[in-house]
Task: inverse folding
């Protein structure tokens, strides 16, 4: 699938780094998103510029957790290195270091979408589906964890809390230590997009105990919780939305 030409010739004299999504990456966009991008010239320009860096950089120069500015008003993309995988804002590099006359090209498997620069706390508070989760962090004065980082956060929705056994919920909210442990059990140090997860992977949480990842073509699970929305980029890491509250064994 080809995006119509846009008047960016004056921007592309170089040298630059360009992250180029495959045709399949565009096909994988949610219904209506591609048409919306194509029809809105300013949005199209914003998306295209978010794929371009103002200098030439090869993969050997990339560093894990480095956030680098794009030509889209200096909005930043995050670099992550997972073993031999190179990931840009959650998008895996399929073909790297392709020289061009005006820079270097890296082919990626997802379209990079510029989002407002928010930390975890700002994103969750503004979404409207995570009131109970955010309120729990505030109750035990742990909200700083949602501002610091980088972290990977498994975030249960309000619906997940409503489905939580009432007696366990009462037990949690009445004991600040248990609630703190439970919240820290949802946090993992470092930014782990799904491109960096593998089936059977064990993640150590900030609380100290581990989480188990299950991956198959139909679903992605953390312990017994289904990840319903993955790879939400924020300035201090990544959020994965889950359908159940995670609970450490001792609680």
Result:
């Amino acid at each position: 699938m080809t995006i119509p030409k846009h008047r960016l010739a004056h921007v592309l004299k170089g040298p630059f780094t360009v992250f180029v999504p495959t045709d399949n990456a565009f096909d994988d966009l949610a219904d209506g998103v591609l048409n919306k991008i194509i029809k809105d010239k300013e949005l199209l320009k914003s998306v295209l510029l978010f794929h371009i860096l103002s200098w030439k950089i090869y993969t050997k120069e990339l560093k894990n957790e480095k956030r680098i500015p794009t030509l889209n008003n200096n909005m930043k993309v995050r670099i992550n290195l997972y073993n031999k995988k190179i990931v840009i804002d959650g998008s895996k590099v399929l073909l790297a270091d392709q020289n061009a006359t005006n820079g270097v090209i890296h082919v990626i498997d997802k379209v990079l979408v510029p989002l407002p620069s928010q930390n975890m706390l700002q994103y969750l508070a503004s979404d409207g589906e995570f009131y109970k989760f955010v309120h729990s962090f505030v109750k035990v004065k742990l909200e700083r964890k949602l501002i610091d980082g980088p972290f990977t956060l498994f975030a249960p929705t309000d619906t997940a809390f409503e489905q939580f056994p009432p007696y366990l919920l009462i037990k949690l909210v009445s004991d600040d230590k248990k609630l703190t442990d439970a919240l820290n059990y949802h946090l993992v140090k470092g930014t782990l997009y799904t491109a960096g997860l593998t089936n059977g992977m064990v993640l150590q949480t900030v609380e100290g105990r581990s989480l188990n990842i299950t991956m198959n073509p139909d679903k992605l699970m953390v312990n017994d919780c289904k990840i319903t929305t993955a790879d939400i980029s924020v300035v201090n890491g990544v959020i994965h939305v889950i359908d159940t509250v995670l609970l450490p064994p001792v609680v």
